[in-house]
Amino acid sequence: MSASIAELRESLRAIEGDGLKRRPVLPFGVGALDGRLASTGLRLDSLHEIAATTPDASDDAAATLFMAGIAARAWGPVLWVVRRRDLFAPGLYQAGLAPERLLYAEAADDAELLALMEEGLRHRGLGAVVGEVQRAAMANTRRLQLAAEGGRTIALLQKRHAREDRNPLAVPSAAVTRWRIGSAPSVPLPGHLAEDALGRACWHVSLVRQRGGEPFETILEACDETGRLALPARLANRKIASGGADQRQAA
Fold it and tell me: Which InterPro entries match (predicted)?
């Protein structure tokens, strides 16, 4: 057993369930997403994969903050396993993930990272387990999915770009959903004096694959300080004008 796994087990022993009711599904609260997800939200007893649209730093940050927002809306402590020390804690906080909820573990390689994630999922005392890898085979993701099943700990695995021409989601996976996240032009602030000012950041959100449902893509405003996404005003207003049921809403 590696020293990292031993240290993680010691940390997990100090974590107990908080008695909160844990929902089997975590909805986004945005009709553009929940209405097209087979489970009307993200299943908590499952593995979900996320990749940046490109290796560009802005897309990579968008994918990381997308995961942070999901983890922020989960029910309890969050284990985040890293390979490199490039997480920006203030950025995670701005996406709703408070520092006191985070438990970090550093892995020497992808194999150890996946083992640490599996250990965290089997503990059952965490709200979310997050990890970032460059490579994970089908067998690896199947182990994570099996570890998550029967619990209420959502598993979020970011597939990072190993090189420019490699699609991180090209390798088959047992994940229930697979997402591609990229930055998009922000919405200008309203008002005459702020016509050229940048508003809330936007992301291009693409669900590449989901079990029991169809893929889709949409534009959403980035996570706010509570981890909630929102439909951009111009899209929400278009739905309202056309008589649609969805109004501007947050996750």
Answer: ImuA, P-loop_NTPase
